[in-house]
Specification:
The protein is mainly alpha-helical. The protein has a single domain (about 25-160), classed as Helix Hairpins (Orthogonal Bundle). The protein contains four helices and two strands. Strand 1 and strand 2 form a beta hairpin. The two termini are about 55 Å apart. The relative contact order is 0.07.
Length: about 160
C-alpha cells in the first residue's frame, strides 16, 4: 500500500512538472494557499471566538506567574534601595570622620584626644589612612549598588509594561 502511494505521488509530481514546467512549485504553493484560506473561511465565527477565549484563558496561569515574579522583584528592589540608603548614610558618616581627623591633624597638635584617650599624630595618620582606604571601598560599593539598583528598576519597569 505504501509502495503504491509513493509510486502514485511520484507520478503526480512528474505529471505536474511536465504540464507546468518551472512554474509548478508556484502553482502548487498558490493552490495550497487557496485551500488554506477556504478552510479558514469555512470555520464559523462563533468557533473562532471560542478559540480566542480559550487562548486567553490559557494565558491566565502565565500572567499570574509573571505577576508573582514582579511582586518578588519589587520586594527585592525595595530591599536594595534600603541597602543603598544605608551604604550612603555610612559613606556620609565615614566622610565626616575623615574630614574631622584631617582637620585635627591640620591643627598642628602633637597629641590628639578622642573618646577620653590620647593618640599621637602618627597613630591618627595611620587611622586616617585606614579609614580613607575603607571609605574608597565603600564608595566603590555604593557606586556598584546604585548601578545594580538602576538596572533592576529598569527591568522592573519593563516587566510591568
Amino acid at each position: 500500500m505504501l509502495k503504491k502511494s509513493i509510486i502514485v505521488g511520484a507520478g503526480l509530481l512528474l505529471l505536474t512538472g511536465l504540464f507546468f514546467g518551472r512554474d509548478a512549485a508556484s502553482y502548487v504553493s498558490t493552490s495550497m494557499g487557496w485551500m488554506h484560506d477556504s478552510v479558514r473561511d469555512s470555520v464559523p465565527v462563533t468557533f473562532e471566538l471560542e478559540r480566542a477565549r480559550q487562548m486567553i484563558r490559557n494565558l491566565d496561569p502565565e500572567i499570574r506567574k509573571n505577576m508573582r515574579l514582579i511582586a518578588v522583584e519589587e520586594s527585592e528592589v525595595e530591599k536594595l534601595r534600603d541597602q543603598v540608603e544605608r551604604v550612603n548614610t555610612d559613606l556620609a558618616k565615614s566622610e565626616g570622620h575623615i574630614l574631622r581627623l584631617n582637620g585635627d591633624l591640620q591643627s598642628g597638635s602633637s597629641q590628639l584626644e578622642y573618646a577620653g584617650r590620647i593618640y599621637t599624630v602618627s597613630q591618627v595618620k595611620a587611622d586616617l589612612e585606614r579609614r580613607f582606604d575603607r571609605h574608597k571601598t565603600k564608595e566603590a560599593t555604593a557606586e556598584k549598588l546604585n548601578k545594580i539598583l538602576s538596572a533592576r528598576e529598569r527591568g522592573l519597569v519593563a516587566a510591568r509594561d
